[in-house]
Batch of 2 targets.
Target 1
Amino acid sequence: MRLLEYQAKELLAQRGVPAPSGQVAATPEAAREVAARLGRVVVKAQVSVGGRGKAGGIKLAETPAEAEAAARALLGSTLKGLPVRQVLVEQALEIARELYLSVALDRAQRCLVLISCAEGGVDIEEVGRLRPASLARIPLDPFVGLRGHHIRQAAHAAHLPAELGAAFAGLAEGLYRCLHECDATLAEINPLALTVDGRLVAADAKIVVDDNALYRQPELAAWGQEGEEPYQALAREQGLSYIKLTGEIGCMVNGAGLAMATMDITRLYGSAPANFADIGGGARAERVLAALRIILADPQVRAVLINIFGGITRCDEVAEGIVAALRELRPRVPIVARLVGTNQEEGQRILGQAQVLTAHSLSEAARLAVSLARPAGGQP
Ligand code: GDP
Ligand code: MN
């Protein structure tokens, strides 16, 4: 579960990581009041997705009236498919340089890593891809934890001025403690701003809490739902794995491997997944209906691709769920289903009667879904 920026900053501030003065606001008027106290501000959309700056979700405001206008433009809009319900109004920083600092779980190395880079900010993914060597990834032995030499190595990689060594160390320790105490798999500050007046401030923060630890983090679990994609909670209740993505094909599958293959093939045919819901093994019609309800609620979905390989899952049961979804949800986009395995004949008969588009192979189904999502000559 990914927390919102203002939540992450609050958790970090409790552990001594400095963030700009600011407050979250849910109305343009409230944003104006905060700005009246703080002066020049940035108004930041609170949605649990990265790249807000490039998508227009971060606005600089010189006056309270500008802050109000910025908040009015952002609140109620959607950013990368997510509704903006709150904005963070923060004192604007005079940034001299943007650094990157995070602690993350590295599954391949089976330990936490401290990651730092001299080129933080919105293009960190590019930096990681084009110049991976400029990112320091420092493994942290779980029996040793974070020590001074790790921090000095990170500071060196970030080209940190020597006089900021102590401030940087305090910040790195706070970040590390935050990750542990919140059961997070990622605690990231990007950018870590080096201000014109020589301070280190977390200009942005991201914390991802391990979903498997939410049972012992009830406060974070409740808090985190604020920033969740609206249907995430419903998916969890229904025992579905549901992930929101940025493309246009809604995918319903059973099993993680099938999910990956299904998403890959939408890309192969020139599209991309908008989301996927994994109904797991042995799903009953009710769970299928819930999955389609969640998938179809995503306004970015332009076609649905259902890919089921029946083992313990029965194709007739899935087909019943699809038919129930058609009746109940009256989808505005086409649905293409490929059901094979246990009871496939019965499943296909049920879908045939309901006039659902079916295909025998995955590639046929994917090609059809992609072509329906992009009518000839139409824009994606
Ligand atoms: P993200 O795009 O979702 O990662 O949002 P960020 O909070 O990281 O903001 C994106 C970019 O906006 C940052 O990399 C900064 O360059 C800029 N930015 C954010 N806050 C401030 C601020 O207070 N002052 C200035 N000058 N730039 C800011
Ligand atoms: Mn950022």
Target 2
Amino acid sequence: MRLDIISIFPEYFAPLDVSLIGKARERGTLDVRLHQLREWAHDVHKTVDDTPYGGGPGMVMKPEVWGEAIDTVAEGGSPRLIVPTPSGRPFDQELAQELAQEPWLLFACGRYEGIDSRVMAEYSSRMRVDEVSIGDYVLAGGEVAVLVMVEAVGRLLPGVLGNAQSAVDDSFAPGSMQNLVEGPVYTKPPVWRGHEVPAVLLSGHHGKVARWRRDEAIRRTVRNRPELAAALDPETLDKHDRKLLEELAFRLQPEDVAN
Ligand code: JA5
């Protein structure tokens, strides 16, 4: 996969030199190209921003600079253009999997109050353009959001993860415990600072281990992600699950309790 990133702070992307993504780049699985947006600013001050039409606080990134940058980087092809913004569509595991199928992604990192909206309008007729949010909070620019997306997408590429099972076992991945977050995990030693590993995990009883893990996943989902718990498909719940949810004072819809 080819991955281009345009930013006024390409130094933000130093983490892409290490770990999983760094190794994938060394092997040629990932071809990451960083671009300094200011290279396409022509005035002596390398200006990339201007005041917003209609007034208001802050500055807006100039369309001419972005236009030249994207024309150059996308020359000869049609990458999928991803623009991080808190007003975008939510980034989730499903979108990560979709992006992992693409041969070429181009990330455009805004700063200040964002990029003049005509840039997204212009390229929408030439390539797939998505404005994407990684969560409901404000960042100073798109760079950190792009790091998040590149890691989420990069680890899904064939051969990037050591253990091929790891990618499908995750919370939120199809094939994992559907719509439940993962429970707690433990390793040696069996007692650490007085905290014991739950005995069931040392029992060697695979059936009891699986049941316990599912219980813990349900407890955590109810506690930390009540909206996911509320959306659980009753078809995926057995009697034990329903009894546990009842104990947790979690109210199922009446039709879920039939049979
Ligand atoms: C800020 C100019 O979803 C969280 C995000 C916050 C944020 C993003 S994504 N992009 C920008 C930005 O600020 O470009």
